[in-house]
Design goal:
Blueprint (H helix, E strand, L loop, with lengths): L6 H10 L7 H21 L9 E5 L5 E3 H16 L3 E6 L6 E2 L8 E9 L10 E9 L10 H4 L8 E7 L3 E6 L4 E7 L4 E6 L10 E3 L10 H11 L10 E2 L5 H11 L2 E4 L12 H14 L3 E3 L20 E4 L1 H12 L2
Parallel strand pairs: 3-5, 11-12, 11-13
Antiparallel strand pairs: 1-2, 3-4, 5-6, 6-7, 7-8, 8-9, 9-10, 13-15, 14-15
Helix pairs in contact: 2-3, 5-8
Bound molecules: 2,5-anhydro-1,6-di-O-phosphono-D-glucitol (AHG) and manganese (II) ion (MN) (2 copies).
One manganese (II) ion binds next to strand 5.
């Protein structure tokens, strides 16, 4: 692996193919790479330091913040602010967007789920960080506005995640396919390990919190029944796999093929996952890898016009044909 191309080299090579590029995105990725390394360190020694458990706060969505949520949020913001290419940040852990006034000439805004799956942290199970990058709509030189962040996902310039799993990986897209890089902690570098990731067209894994099944719409339950049927020809029953970290569940399904579902429930009619911090970046990656992501039948996630920062949405993402099959069940009502 030491002879493989590094993340830094890969980004520079891609930039060379676009002579009009200013290098701003390259700097932005440097920020994310630094934050990923810091978080890798914090997460891997989590049992040793004083970083496990709940912090004192509750975020704007009423969720108890874990100490690592707070640390991850701070580290990402610091890393992004330090390089002058990000003019504003919106984070799942912040009430409203942050203006980086010293970077007011910059072109990009970044949206973050700094720590995804944080309930898994205390039990040593994989977690992640998710990022999403847009070109601002307001003119550079002026303060950022809410409209800079409230853009449909199809406008994303880049998106990706870091997964802190059995190894740490950074997976991202700039709209030209998806590439995955594995971190070598002894060298402190990410190496290209998963070039041009493609999601299998059909998958035999379904990932959903079945404990809430009685609250799901009937179409979802009919689809799940179908997944559990015996049928040798189509390889059913499918396997159920649910980690409870979107990043980890999606990463597995990206490689092996499958579908992740977070339906609306009677108690959460909008679903639980956040459109801007979780669903849009994961949907962008899924589509770039040949997969599909919808909020309901025919409702492409990337086409949703967001109305507010912390907006939630039902979320179905995965192998293209498996998602299309689910959509047919949903359309039947
Ligand atoms: P976060 O830790 O950023 O709040 O996200 C947790 C999300 C997602 O990662 C995961 O798939 C889902 O919540 C799990 O929810 P349930 O516990 O309701 O299944
Ligand atoms: Mn999350
Ligand atoms: Mn989170």
């Amino acid at each position: 692996m030491e002879t493989a191309i590094t993340l830094g080299e890969f980004i520079v090579k891609n930039q060379a193919a676009h002579p009009e590029a200013t290098g701003a995105l390259t700097s932005l990725f440097s920020s994310i790479r630094v934050a990923a390394k810091v978080l890798h360190r914090e997460i891997n020694r989590a049992g040793l330091g004083d970083v496990l458990g709940a912090a004192d706060g509750v975020n704007v969505q009423g969720e108890v913040q874990q100490k690592l949520d707070v640390i991850a949020n701070r580290k990402f913001i610091q890393a992004l602010a330090a390089r002058g290419v990000t003019c504003g940040i919106a984070s799942e852990e912040e009430d409203s967007h942050i203006t980086l006034d010293e970077n007011r000439d910059a072109h990009y805004v970044v949206l973050l789920d700094p720590l995804d799956g944080s309930s898994n942290i205390d039990v040593n199970v994989s977690v992640g960080s998710i990022f999403s990058v847009y070109r601002r709509r307001s003119p550079p030189g002026s303060p950022v506005t809410p409209e800079d962040f409230l853009q449909p996902g199809r406008e994303q310039v880049a998106a990706g995640y870091v997964i802190y799993g059995s190894s740490t990986m950074l997976v991202y897209t700039t709209g030209q396919g998806v590439n995955g890089f594995t971190y070598d902690p002894t060298l402190g570098m990410f190496f290209l390990s998963h070039p041009d990731m493609r999601m299998p067209e059909e998958g035999a894994i379904y990932s959903v919190n079945e404990g809430y099944a009685r609250r799901f719409p009937p179409g979802v339950n009919r689809f799940l029944d179908w997944c559990r049927e015996e049928d040798e020809a189509s390889g059913r029953p499918y396997s159920a796999r649910y980690i409870g970290s979107l990043v980890s569940d999606f990463h597995r399904n990206l490689i092996k093929g499958g579908i992740y579902l977070y339906p609306p429930t009677k108690t959460h009619p909008e679903g639980k996952l956040r459109l801007l911090y979780e669903c849009n970046p994961i949907a962008f990656l899924a589509e770039q890898a040949g997969g599909r992501a919808v909020a309901g039948p025919g409702q492409r996630i990337l086409d949703i016009e967001p109305g507010k920062l912390h907006q939630r949405t039902p979320f179905y993402v995965g192998s293209r044909r498996t998602v299309e099959r689910l959509e047919r069940f949903l359309a039947e009502g």
